[in-house]
Write a sequence for this structure.
């Protein structure tokens, strides 16, 4: 093997290793960005779930109130019903 051929092989291997490192680094960066984005999405969904559960609990309490006799009476007074004794 001549000196020139050996230098070409070394140069080719070096270029291929550098390309491989660049490609692997790009893939790692892409994966990290995807993981961060999905974690943020998970946090947002958890926050929205808590918000809607709080709304559901409030609405359930309101429904229970209006199902009671006191709630129905308050609602009747609100809409102008007058009851005579």
């Amino acid at each position: 093997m001549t000196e020139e051929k050996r230098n070409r092989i070394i140069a080719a291997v070096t270029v291929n290793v550098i390309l491989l490192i660049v490609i692997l680094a790009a893939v790692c960066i892409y994966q990290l960005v995807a993981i961060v984005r999905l974690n943020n999405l998970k946090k947002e969904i958890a926050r929205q779930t808590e918000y809607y559960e709080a709304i559901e609990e409030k609405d359930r309490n309101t429904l229970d109130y209006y199902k009671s006799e006191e709630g129905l009476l308050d609602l009747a007074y609100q809409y102008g019903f007058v009851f005579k004794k």
Helices lie at 3-67, 69-78. The chain has two helices and no strands. The first helix runs from residue 3 to 67.
